[in-house]
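User: Before I run my own analysis I want an independent prediction to cross-check against. Here's the chain; please return only the structure tokens and, at the end, one sentence I can use as a sanity check.
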Amino acid sequence: MKADGTLFVSVSVQVSGCKSNPDEASLENKSVGPVKCEMRNVLFICSANKLRSPTAEHVFASWPGVETDSAGLSNDASVVLSSEQLEWADVIFVMEKAHRAKLSGKYRRYLNGQRVICLDIPDDYGFMDPTLVRLLESKAGSFLR
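Assistant: Structure tokens:
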């Protein structure tokens, strides 16, 4: 990985979301050498950082081109949201509209135009609950493909 966050790999299969250099040709059934993949830093936020956002962090951590982190907005969260996390993030997902409102109110100066997406997922699920995983994949996955 280079200092600018890009990853260079050699592949001979289709790599979704990556472009080959120099002609950006399709990778399907070809060996094209070095491929530059832009990494997106994705931050998941809920209240306590115990169930929903850690599940999302875990689910999307293995997706190609996605680097994940999670935090909570409550003072007693497992990982309390920091300004550094917000500055690091390219995309921010919140679980509820109330999280977006609190984020905008308390951390507005750190958002710097980052995209904040509300997933509308209530606090009804345990960590890695299969229903929660499916909801996350269907709601957040479309933004990360």
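Sanity check: Residues 6-32 have pLDDT under 50 and may be disordered.
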